[in-house]
Amino acid sequence: MKKKKKRLVVPFRMNIIFFVVFLLFSSLIFRLGIVQIVHGEKYTNEIKRTSDVTVQIPVPRGKIVDRNGNLIVGNKALKAITYTRPTSIKPDEMLEIAEQLAKYIKKDTKEDIKAITERDRKDFWILHHQNKAKSKITKEDEKILKRKKLAEKDYDKEIYHLMLDRITEKELNSFSKNDLEVLAIYREMLSGYPLTPQIIKNKNVTKEEIAIIGENLDVLPGVDITTDWDRYNSYKIDGFAPLASILGKITTAKEGLPSEKAEYYTALGYSRNDRVGKSYLEYQYEDVLRGKKEKVENIMDKSGKVVDSVVVRKGQRGNDLVLSVDMEFQQKVEEIITNKLSHLSQPYLDRTFVTVMNPNTGEILAMAGKLREKNEETGVREYNDFALGNMITSYAMGSAVKGAMVLTGYQTGAITMNNRVIRDEPLVFKDTKSKSSWSTSAFGNIDDLYALKRSSNVYMFKLAMRIGGQQYYIPNGPLSIDKVKAIDTLRYNFAQFGLGVKTGIDLPGEQVGFGGRIPDFAGNVLDFGIGQFDTYTPLQLVQYISTIANGGSRIRPHLVKEIREPSDDIHELGPVAHELGSNVLNKIAAKEEEIDRVKEGLRLVVYDPNGTGKSIRNKQLKIAGKTGTAEALYDGPVPHSPGLMLWNLTFAGYAPYDNPEVALSVVVPWSTTDKMHPNLDVADAVFKAYFDLKKKREKKDTNTINKKINIKKTEKQQNEANDTNSE
Question: One of 234, 399, 455, 456 is an active-site residue; which one?
Fold first, then answer.
């Protein structure tokens, strides 16, 4: 009889274990499903963020050329050594790289060492002497800090600051020359942003340094050799450059974004160490000149180190600015100013301004200013560029503004074409200082033409009286004008010519001069009529005379003529991206015959034998304009007695008078005498220089707008010179 097999019985405990394992596996599968299906995209993106990081590499700025294609500001190529910091690296690891790099390159110039701050030295000392630094913290310090119950991060921060405070002067000065060189490199490495190349050295990089670093890149993680750029002015000679103050400056890589605008720039995609325009043209046209950064995708391993890089988008340098300025003419104007100033040995006369403009388009052809200053090192008085003074300094312009005063008389009805004769006579008012014209004898009954050519003050005084509500002058009687109504009316009308308001030039920081307050005395309203109360800038003066020259349109002056796309050929300009045409801001409310009447008066200033501008010699150029002599309070830099009164000598004019193509203003402030005429001498020479240059070019049949860039020193030559210096 066969025995029955025993039935295998699984113990109850085993069943429980199997059931628990089943539940765990089910839970795991369910969790994996949640991760894969619900959060899969999120985690995939996180993996990508940590393995693929995109950075943007800066590119050179656009060039600045003059109206004829002459390069003014360009980019000089520089060999550069860079360091790209990974997302995670310890300070001591970075220090090891800096120490290794210091064996191969020199970074010990005065500029390098001077850039090292006290805080840099302290941080570096702690990094080098960690045990000594820790010993500066007592147990009592730890107890005090623990009582504060700080978070771990805040606790470590407090400890670190205690270490910093207790580093002695002797310890700070204990660094060797080699230590400082390592620190100069280390601080540059530390100042960069993760995964963004930081310039370690780009000046005087030698071929030997490039070669040895290239051979040792495997032991210098993050270090690379590349090409950087530097801004240069092709007209700069011995530290001086025409128009330098107008062109402006850019920040250095060390400066990066200006702190006050850092948030604005970063929102536009800038990195904090990007170089940007910080003044005038470079600042005004930053969005044009900046270019498109190169986009690079860095592939990193799990440790955060870059293992590969892929260019996603090639960079493109910025667009080029074509200025309306003619640099050859600009240089001639500056030479004229310097020559005239050098012959004037006066203690307070230290500056002269000239702005030349096309009255029909608003194009600035030259903007020159010279300031005579003492060089603190050599003790020699030098003529420095102060072109900026044409728009940021203001002066009483005197009789040069009388053209605006006569047209204001016409516009307000103070005079008409049928009633324009006024008697020039000494004006004696009750309780008011007497006023008269500059001549020793009164002119008698005169019209507007005579008043302009002979520069009658009384004619303008009586116009101001009529505008203020007093129609007739009564000898020894009161000056009973409504000074508020009069000054407001005069300022409003002068503003239509550009006097006392912003001209609208395409530069930041333009000033409007001194004005706006109500005169203390009614007599000051009369002074306003002869340009001796409010002050104006030389730029406003040229806009005013241009408004008369072109028949009554106030045109916005501008320095940039065109914006052009970058070209691959350094000798050619790219296609026009944008052209800046003329912009009429307003038209004066005067009839054509009234404007023509004033223009005739301005012609007589130069061509009448008794005109105040008769000393202008180049009459074949058909020059028209108005002279000005204003007695004004001196507020310049030379030490002086309180209340010193000096003379501002001015001129505003245009040519040819029958078809104006060029207008200018000349301002020579703070002369000790009104018996000399440097204002007329300068104006005469500038007009001649303009027409001589025009004639010379017409003979050569030169095209004014030439697509070729005439580079005095090409980028290639600059690079070759840089290589030679490096050797």
Answer: 399
List pLDDT tens digits, range 656-709. Answer: 999 999 999 999 999 999 999 999 999 999 999 999 999 999 988 644 444 455
Edge-to-edge order in the sheet of strand 294-300: 52-57, 294-300, 306-313
Tell me the C-alpha distance between 496 and 597, whole Å: 18
Annotation says 437 is catalytic: no
Strand intervals (E) in 90-157:
none
CA gap 558, 390 in Å, rounded: 13
The whole-chain average pLDDT of the chain stands at 87
Q: Is the pLDDT of residue 726 over 80?
A: no
Q: Which of 439, 560, 583 is nearest to 504 (CA)?
A: 583
User: Do residues 94 and 190 touch, judged by C-beta distance below 8 A?
Assistant: yes
| C-beta separation of 514 from 528 below 8 A | no
Encoding tokens for residue 268?
Answer: 């536009």
Cα 541 to Cα 399, 400, 502, 685, distances in angstroms: 12, 8, 11, 19
**Residue located via tokens 């920040």:** 251
Query: d(Cα 562, Cα 580) in Å, to the nearest integer?
Result: 6
* pLDDT tens, residue by residue, 460-485: 999 999 999 999 999 999 999 999 99
Round to whole Å and give the CA distance between 668 and 649.
Answer: 5
| Span 207-252, pLDDT tens digits | 999 999 989 988 899 899 888 888 999 998 877 889 999 999 999 8
- Nearest-angstrom CA–CA distance, 444 and 644: 33
Strands 320-323 and 645-655: unpaired
CA atoms in the 13 A half-sphere facing the CB of 646: 21
At residue 31, what are phi and psi to the nearest 5 degrees?
-65, -45
CB atoms within 10 A of CB 198: 17
Full DSSP string of 192-215? SPTTS-EEEE-SS--HHHHHHHHH
Q: How far apart are CA 353 and CA 364, in angstroms?
A: 14
CA torsion, ordered 161, 162, 164, 166, to nearest 10 deg: 160
What is residue 260's DSSP assignment? G
